[in-house]
Amino acid sequence: MIKLVNKEKRHLKKNNLSLVTALFPILILVILLSYNVLVYGDDALGGANQFILLMGGAIAAVIGFYKKISYETMIQKVAENLQSVTGALLILLFVGALAGTWLISGIIPAMIYYGLQILHPNIFLPACIIICAIISLATGSSWTTSATVGIALIGIGTVLQIPSGMVAGAVISGAYFGDKLSPLSDTTNLAPAMARGELFRHIRYMTFTTIPSIIVTLIVFFILSLTQETYGTADTENLMIAIREKFNITFWLFIVPAAVIILIIKKTPPVVALLIGTLLGGLFALIFQPNILLEISSSEFLSLETAYRSIMDAISISIEIKTSNILLNDLFSSGGMEGMLGTIWLIICAMVFGGIMDAIGALERISSALLNWAQNTFQLFASTVASCLAINLTASDQYLSIVIPGKMFTKAYDERGLAPENLSRTLEDSGTVTSVLIPWNTCGAYQSGVLGVGVGEYFIFAIFNWLSPFVTLLYAAFSIKIAKKV
Fold first, then answer.
1. Which of 41, 318, 326, 333 is deepest in the core (most CB within 10 A)?
2. What is the pTM of this model?
3. Contact status, residue 201 vs residue 143, Cβ threshold 8 Å
4. Helix axes 86-104 and 290-297, enclosed angle (nearest 10)
5. Which stretch of DSSP H or E encloses residue 7?
6. Cβ atoms within 10 A of the Cβ of 258, count?
7. Distance CA 176, CA 402 (A)
8. Which residues make beta-bridge pairs with 418?
9. β-bridge partners, 484
10. Per residue in 52-91, pLDDT tens?
11. How far apart are CA 258 and CA 3, in angstroms?
């Protein structure tokens, strides 16, 4: 098998795809996905988009067969892609489980209850950014931030009648700001590794573009918060009364999210931390919310069997908790692990498409074309940004958007006398943060699934994420903080 793959790699080098051929599957994919959105709207994520990704992979495979690339080689690349997201898929399952036990234990309702008292609409959106930035910086994980605090903030925003797209944009902006600057983040470590740089020089150099981007984002969200003032405080007291009637609200519930955050700060694997958070959520449900367990199981008396059934239902399938307030009824529901299956399905199909595109040499051909276009420093930076965006669109994975351009552009930056932190910063500013803006990317699918807000809804409000590449290009155009090799 290895000899066959190596032989086909040599064959590809002699028979490079034309740029038009390499782009053809992407063009068809974009057309079909656009039509899906036109026909299905937000429901396209329910299955139509997944099948279109497989169709895009099939078109790429036909090109591969024509170029003498074997079926085994393409399947091997798909397998490698799927293996690379195994951890992400497990995290998604545990996020669904955690959301279920955190609902029935009263943790999410408690966050909403206290948030209603603290967060006024005039500062709510900027506060979302700051809270998520601090937690993501401490944990190194935008995903975990969204899955814990982000869910609660979406809930608070809902009861304050602030558009969920705005809240999700604030959550994502803050989470990715912290993720980018955290030494615990995998992408923050990956980017300088690909650029042959040093971690803390990379972080220090990123602050030049990242700090202005987040300041602009905070200003915009402060203005947006002012526009929401007339909607925020209505019926807040009634909402809090409805929460207290249904749940036993106490500060002791915050032991669980605090424990999860501490575990991640101590570099506990996210899957382990989320599993512990899920189990603690179930335990706290048994201690603090026995009435909720009775309601879920439709039982009159709480026994070991009914408690077990209720907790397992919250972990695995959809549950709803009814209150005296209609807004809260829509809010206090969870899909458990079952609710994450649609997102997992999307990621698997995206990895199939990206794997086949990689196997036939299409991704390398597209990146090479961008590299050949660069004749000066600005064009080199622009090519890097465009390459990261292209990989995010085609390979559907933020890690590949750092690895592939990182490998390809290292030599070009070195030959032009540019320090490696120029490349590593650009990889993060254009690869890491834009992945969440693409619905079929693993990050876009994850954040959309976890927060319950479509990418189309939060796209324009994820200001930090789409502003970052422009700031990088602005710095390159005016030669601001462009470090030279020592």
1. 333
2. 0.70
3. no
4. 110
5. helix 2-14
6. 10
7. 15
8. 484
9. 418
10. 889 989 999 999 998 888 999 999 999 988 887 787 788 7
11. 51
Residue type, 304: L
Which residue(s) pair with 334 in the sheet?
319
Q: Which amino acid is at 141?
A: S
Q: 306-349: per-residue pLDDT in tens?
A: 999 999 999 999 888 888 877 677 678 788 888 888 778 877 88
**What's the pLDDT score for residue 271?**
83
Range 338-345, long-range pairs (CB < 8 A, 24+ positions): 338/96, 339/96, 339/99, 339/449, 340/92, 340/93, 340/95, 340/96, 340/449, 342/45, 342/46, 342/47, 342/449, 343/92, 343/445, 343/446, 343/448, 343/449, 343/450, 344/89, 344/92, 344/93, 345/47, 345/50
Place of tokens 């690909």: 194
Q: Taking the CB of residue 377, how many other CB atoms lie within 10 A of it?
A: 17
Helix, strand or coil, per DSSP, at residue 320 = strand
pLDDT of res. 327: 65
Distance of CA 215 to the CA centre of its chain: 22
Q: Residue 379 is encoded by which pair of tokens? A: 């064009």
Residue 230 has pLDDT above 70, yes or no: no
pLDDT at residue 51 greater than cutoff 50: yes
Cβ atoms 242, 325 nearer than 8 A: yes
CA atoms within 13 A on the CB side of 158: 22
Tokens of 188: 């923050």
- What is the three-state SS of 328-387? HHHHCEECCCHHHHHHHHHHHHHHHHHHHHHHCCHHHHHHHHHHHHCCCHHHHHHHHHHH
Provide the residue type at 176 as one letter. Y
Amino acid at 316: S
Contacts of 31 (CB under 8 A, 6+ apart): none
Q: Residue 459: helix, strand or coil by DSSP?
A: helix
- Cα angle 106, 112, 117; round to 5: 125
Q: How distant, in Å, are the alpha carbons of 5, 169, 459 from that of 454? A: 39, 11, 8
3-class state of residue 69 by DSSP: coil
For residue 361, report the phi and psi dihedrals to the nearest 5 degrees: 85, 10
Cα-Cα-Cα-Cα torsion 199, 433, 423, 365, nearest 10 degrees, comes to 130
| CB-CB contact of 202 with 161 (8 Å) | no
Structural domain spans, the chain: 87-339
pLDDT at 472: 95
The region, left, alpha or beta by phi > 0 then psi within -120 to 50, assigned to residue 186 is alpha
Q: Residue 255 carries which side chain, given as an amino acid letter?
A: I
Alpha-carbon distance 171 to 142, whole Å?
9
Angle (CA) 197 201 202, round 5°: 65
